[in-house]
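Lecture 7, part 2: worked example. A protein chain together with adenosine-5'-diphosphate.
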Amino acid sequence: MDSVIGELASLMSEKNMEAVFTTPRITSPVNADAVRLAQVFRNLLSNAIKFSRPGGRLEIACETRPDEVLWSVRDEGPGIPNEELEQIFEKFQQSSRTRTGAGGTGLGLAICREIVNAHQGKIWATNHPDGGACFHVELPAAKIVKRDAARTSPRPGKRPTA
Ligand code: ADP
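Predicted complex, written out as structure tokens:
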């Protein structure tokens, strides 16, 4: 997420926008294809920038739970009509609120969902109660196998089998 924010810094400064982390940046490890995960974050952040008014702020949060790691990107743009929150993840679907003049292909979020599904994760959109859209990505936390616990020491006097 940090590196994608860096990549998009000039796009944000053109619109006089800033991205703010509202939680500590530390998350548990996840097993993920880093290039694909960055593609998901890049798509969410560039949409958030594209649909925000100049001077708008992006709020980024990450949360570690026992079994999942969750990221969210919130903007101060027009939001998404509630009945379209699922539809926008389908190919070539655009929200009725931004369809005119927004440009784009309507493919980015469909690709994001495929990538996240391939990681056994979830991606979804909500509207923030104070306005703006919020996109959430949840991936399973990596299971950390302690090396010592994984090593089974043979009982004395008994030869280990295979
Ligand atoms: P594209 O942005 O190229 O149209 P996406 O699949 O990334 O394609 O997004 C699909 C649609 O979802 C957008 O056209 C827009 O209508 C809506 N959308 C996505 N992100 C946001 C956002 N942050 N705020 C409002 N609408 C959004």
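The mean pLDDT is 89. Residues 63 and 141 are 11 Å apart (CA to CA). Keep this in mind for problem set question 3.
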